[in-house]
Amino acid sequence: MKPEDEKGKIWFNGKFVDWWDAKIHVMSHVAHYGTSIFEGMRCYATKKGSAIFRLSEHIKRFFDSAKIYRMDMPFTQDELKQACIDVIKVNKLKTAYIRPLVFRGYNMLGVDPTSCPVEVAIAALNWGTYLGEEAINLGVDVRVSSWQRMHPNTHPALAKTGANYMNSQLIKLEAKMDKYAEGIALNSHGFVCEGSGENIFLVRNNEIFTPTVGSSILPGITRDSVFKIANEFGYTVKEAVIPREMLYIADELFFTGTAAEVSPIRSVDKISIGTGKRGPITEKIQRRFFDIIETGDDGDYGWLTFIE
User: Fold this and answer.
1) By CB count within 10 A, which of 3, 92, 236, 252 is most buried?
2) What angle do the packed helices 55-68 and 221-232 form, to 10 degrees?
3) Shared domain check, 157 and 279
4) Which one, of 114, 111, 173, 109, lies nearest residue 146 by Cα?
C-alpha cells in the first residue's frame, strides 16, 4: 500500500468508510477458516478517460466463486459494479487496482459457516507493474515449483478464494527464495497448471497452447482476452494437457493476469526459452492488449467501463 491509499475510503457493506475504519472482529470466521472470495481488476487511464477493464466479467466470476461456496451475496451484480465505479470516483483515482472481497464475518466459531454474516468490501489502490517494469519488455526468470496445485476434488480451482492462495503463497515464497520472479505450478497429475497468480501460454511451431480449465487452473479474465486477441491475428489458442518438458522446448512463454497483464517468460529452471527474449507472437498480443487500454478503443469487445 502507498500512503495516499491509506487516506482514501473503502466501500464496506454498502457505505463508504475511512480506510482505517474498515475493520472486522478478530473472531470473524474468515480469520480462522479462510472463508473469503475476492477479485482483482484494473482501472486504466485511457485516452478516452479512466475505464475499468472487463468489470462485468470480474463481477460475474465473483458471484460464481461465492455460489460454489454457498455464500449468498447480500448485493446484486449491478450494485457491486456500481460500487466499483463509485470507489474510483470517491477516491479521485485515474488508475487503480480494485479489490472486491466477500467473506464470512463474526458470529461463532466452528467449521459450519452458515450462521456467520456474509460481508462485502471494495477497495481501490495504486499498484504498478506486478512482476517489475522490465518484465513487460525483457521477460522474467521462473522455476517449476515443488508445490502442486490442489486436486480437483479438494479445493475448487474455479473459485477465486482466499484459502486457495495459501498454496499460491508457498509457490511465490519458494520462487523468491531461489531468486526467481515467479513459480509455475504443476497439477496433481504432474501437468502444467499456472503461476502463483497468473495463467500461462506456450508458443510452439507458430501455435499457441494453454492448460485446459480441467487442469486445476483459475479461468482468468485476461486469459480469455488473449484468446480473442490471438484470434485477431489468425491464431486459435488450443487448450491442452501440457507436460512439464514442453515448457523447456517452447519457442515462447508468457504469463497473463490482471496484475501481470501480459508478461513474457525468458527462462524456466535456468533454461532459456526460445532466444531468451520476448518472442514475436507474445509481443503482438502484448502490444494489442496495451493498445486497447491505452487508447480506450476496444472495438466490439465492450471490455471497458468508463468511469464518467
Assistant:
1) 252
2) 140
3) yes
4) 173
- The whole-model pTM stands at 0.95
Report which DSSP code applies to 161. B
Residue 262 corresponds to which cell in the numbers above? 501480459
Report the range of poorest mean pLDDT among 83-97, 120-134, 197-211, 268-282. 120-134
Would residue 37 count as lying in a domain? yes
Residue partners of 253: CB distance under 8 A and separation at least 6: 200, 201, 202, 203, 247, 264, 265, 268, 273, 282
Tell me whether residue 160 is one of the annotated catalytic residues. yes
212 CB-near residues (< 8 Å, 6+ apart): 239, 240, 241
Residues 146, 251 share a domain = yes
The string of pLDDT tens digits covering residues 231-267 is: 999 999 999 999 999 999 999 999 999 988 999 999 9
Give the domain-ending residue among 125, 146, 174. 125
Query: Domain span at residue 271?
Result: 133-295
Residue 177: which CATH number? 3.20.10.10
Q: How many domains does the chain have?
A: 2
